[in-house]
Design a protein that fits this description.
The chain is of the alpha+beta class. The protein has one domain: Glutaredoxin (3-Layer(aba) Sandwich), CATH 3.40.30. 35% of the residues lie in helices and 16% in strands. The protein has helices at residues 9-14, 17-21, 52-61, 76-85, 89-98, 122-128, 166-177, 186-193; strands spanning 33-34, 40-41, 65-71, 99-105, 111-113, 119-121, 136-139, 158-161. The strands form 3 sheets. Strands 4-3-7-8 form a 4-stranded mixed β-sheet, sandwiched between helices. The protein has a two-stranded antiparallel sheet with strand order 1-2. It has a two-stranded antiparallel sheet with strand order 5-6. Strand 1 and strand 2 form a beta hairpin. Helix 5 packs parallel to helix 7. The radius of gyration is 18 Å and the shape is globular.
């Protein structure tokens, strides 16, 4: 490889960001990679066989919660979530320590096994759960016990439909982690944490 001094601009553009900046000085947003599917991906997102019960049990065994992030190609607020919210190390570190995040495509064709064993495409699963906006985050209980017996819309413990600014975004994850949904609404939680 030639030295950076003699490298052309095109050659520099082809180098991975970490090679140019050095891993220690790499900004958090550099972890967001635009995939061939048109969605931004984070390296720390859950790499799954798309069996939701298995994903929930695995997260619980590690003391974490399961969240699904629903996205859509070209969604500006999905992009904002990746390049702004996930670029904040306080937010990303909290989520990584406490959650497994599974990324699904609102119109996707990959097969997903729902909690009750029913196999559906991502698009069919989104319809089953009435996902209408992107990004939408669904949050599930801390245990898979009894989840399959519930109707799909009563399986989640919280939902964030649409983009949340970083402060509220982090608060939503704390709301779920603290099980504050057992005591009130997200709005109540925000009001109680102000001050």
């Amino acid at each position: 490889m030639t030295s950076n001094r003699t490298m052309t601009r095109r050659g520099l553009m082809m180098l991975p960001t970490a090679a140019i900046l050095g891993a220690a000085s790499m900004p958090a947003w550099a972890d967001a990679v635009l995939g061939d599917d048109g969605l931004y991906h984070q390296s720390w997102f859950l790499n799954s066989f798309l069996d939701l019960r298995e994903d929930l049990e695995s997260a619980a065994s590690e003391g974490k919660r399961l969240a699904i992030m629903w996205e859509l190609r070209g969604c500006p607020y999905c992009r904002e979530t990746h390049l702004v919210n996930f670029a904040d190390p306080v937010i990303t570190n909290y989520i990584r320590a406490n959650f497994e995040v599974l990324q699904l495509n609102l119109l996707g064709a990959r097969k997903v096994i729902d909690f009750d064993g029913k196999e559906l495409t991502e698009k069919e699963l989104a319809e089953r759960y009435a996902i209408r906006f992107t990004p939408t985050f669904q949050f599930f209980p801390s245990s898979a016990d009894g989840v399959a017996a519930r109707e799909p819309l009563s399986r989640e413990v919280a939902r964030a439909p649409g983009y949340l600014k970083p402060t509220h975004f982090l608060a939503m994850f704390r709301f779920v982690r603290d099980k504050a949904y057992e005591r009130g609404t997200f709005r109540d939680y925000l009001a109680s944490t102000k001050g």
